[in-house]
Amino acid sequence: MNNQTRTSFKRWALPTLTVQQLVLLSALIALSFILGRVSITTQLIRVTFVFLASSLMGKFFGPLWTAMTMVLLDFVKVTFFGGGQWSPVMAIGVLVAGLIYGGLFYQEKQTDKVALWKVVVAVLLITIVVNLIINTGALVIMYSQHKSVSVFFSMMATRLPKNIIFFPIQLVMTYFVLNNPIVKDISKRLFKS
């Protein structure tokens, strides 16, 4: 097996984490809780910055750790802090988002800069596949009395403006956070290449 093949498989592995890496993962979970509480809210939209913690999880831990952590985090947030009932249908979007973040941001050499094209593809996939398709479908399944394609598209139309407005904001913030010198320093210290 050549080195390129090993690198591709390593990206989708579930490596054992060191104590320092577990502490970092715990800190990112706490950051996700904090960012979930801080939001910009208008009459039409509510924007949170949880995607920053999720992006960092993807960069440091890869797709499987990120997806599992995000689903567990979603369960804890909704069940214990959200006042609602956790739904596995909504968790599908969270799972796919974790796989996208980890699949595109995780690198063999952690100190390398995350390429702009990877950030564009990841944010585009999150916006279209997760936010508009999967989450809209989950909302139709969970809350609509009439489950039809027309209901799906009308609900998607109401969600589209927020996603169009938020896309460039998420893109710029994700790129700069992932390529921040502090993030590179954490990578050097905790993830030996």
TrEMBL record:
<feature type="transmembrane region" description="Helical">
    <location>
        <begin position="12"/>
        <end position="35"/>
    </location>
</feature>
<feature type="transmembrane region" description="Helical">
    <location>
        <begin position="47"/>
        <end position="66"/>
    </location>
</feature>
<feature type="transmembrane region" description="Helical">
    <location>
        <begin position="164"/>
        <end position="183"/>
    </location>
</feature>
<feature type="transmembrane region" description="Helical">
    <location>
        <begin position="86"/>
        <end position="107"/>
    </location>
</feature>
<feature type="transmembrane region" description="Helical">
    <location>
        <begin position="119"/>
        <end position="144"/>
    </location>
</feature>
<keyword id="KW-0812">Transmembrane</keyword>
<keyword id="KW-0472">Membrane</keyword>
<keyword id="KW-1133">Transmembrane helix</keyword>
<dbReference type="InterPro" id="IPR030949">
    <property type="entry name" value="ECF_S_folate_fam"/>
</dbReference>
<dbReference type="InterPro" id="IPR024529">
    <property type="entry name" value="ECF_trnsprt_substrate-spec"/>
</dbReference>
<dbReference type="Pfam" id="PF12822">
    <property type="entry name" value="ECF_trnsprt"/>
</dbReference>
<protein>
    <submittedName>
        <fullName>Folate family ECF transporter S component</fullName>
    </submittedName>
</protein>
